[in-house]
Write a structure and sequence with these properties.
- The protein is globular and about 45 Å long.
- It is about 0% helix and about 50% strand.
- By secondary structure, the protein is mostly beta strands.
Length: about 290
């Protein structure tokens, strides 16, 4: 089956990343990490609202009070879309030389976000979990380049990509507490595919993985076996997420900031937001949960 690739927005993002469907607002949230920009893109109208948060931003998710939550190098913040007003949620105790990268909420509304070594060469990053009571817990240490996250449909398996290891790890997860255990390598990926980056999980518990320098997203079965490949007209493919009213559209973020002039000439839509219709659905993203009031 051939899957068409559609350019939704010629955003020319330096480092597009972390797409997330906000079902209540009917928009795709995503970030341009190095530019410090949060995007709210309406794929029906093509309207793209941007919020400059004044700092590098690794990821964005909706919060259950209508605001957005973002992960930055110094921790987690709320952002009010109409005004751009920011409120700190919680900081992270991170060593010098790391920056925030990809993140998303789990099915219970906990916000997971990871850091990376700025040079992507030393295992000094971590994966953090922000809970509803605003506590932050380091869940995985010794990470070089924290990237893709995803959960199985029953919430009992979490997937995580530390890109420079060229593989996907799986963890047993307790949906009630958010604890993880039994880390194991699900699959080692060929380095010829490119660097594994962001990912998502579809309704059949298959994994969709974006490949930096690989010009593609690939679908793997729950055991890590390659099922299909969709090629894009750009090389720096960063992440993907299901969205749309029926959650049957796969949105793909890309980057252009490190491409040469010659590469940019050949990849005129680099940094754009793309859409695929693979004939499958994803699961709804849970908004960041907060303590009940009253």
């Amino acid at each position: 089956m051939t899957i068409d690739v559609e350019l939704v927005l010629d955003a020319r993002a330096e480092l597009g990343e972390a797409p997330c469907w906000d079902a209540d607002a009917g928009v795709l949230l995503w970030v341009d990490i190095t530019a410090g920009i949060v995007h709210r893109t309406d794929p029906l109208t093509g309207h793209d609202e941007t919020i400059d948060v004044g700092r590098a931003v690794g990821s964005v998710v909706p919060a259950d009070d209508g605001r957005l939550a973002i992960a930055t190098d110094d921790g987690f913040w709320f952002v009010d879309p109409p005004t751009g007003e920011m409120e700190p949620i919680a900081g992270i105790d991170a060593p010098a030389g790391v920056v925030m990268n990809d993140g998303k909420t789990d099915p219970s509304g906990r916000y997971w976000a990871g850091t990376k070594d700025a040079e992507a060469s030393h295992p000094i990053g971590s994966l953090y979990r922000l809970d509803a009571d605003r506590t932050v817990t380091e869940m995985v240490g010794g990470v070089t380049l924290s990237n893709g996250l995803g959960w199985s449909s029953d919430g009992r398996t979490m997937y995580h990509i530390d890109s420079t290891t060229y593989g996907i790890d799986a963890f047993d997860t307790d949906p009630a507490s958010g604890t993880i255990a039994n880390r194991r390598r699900l699959v080692d990926l060929p380095d010829g595919w490119g660097l594994p980056d962001g990912m998502t999980v579809d309704e059949e518990d298959f994994l969709w993985v974006a490949f930096w320098t690989g010009s593609a997203v690939r679908r793997l079965d729950p055991g890590g076996v390659l099922v299909s490949t969709v090629h894009l007209p750009v090389s720096l493919v960063t992440s993907c997420a299901f969205g749309g009213v029926e959650l049957d559209e796969l949105y793909v973020t890309t980057a252009r900031g490190v491409l040469s002039e010659a590469e940019l000439h050949d990849q005129r839509t680099a940094g754009g937001l793309f859409r695929l219709r693979p004939g499958l659905r994803g699961s709804r993203s849970s908004p960041l949960a907060q303590p009940a009031v009253g």
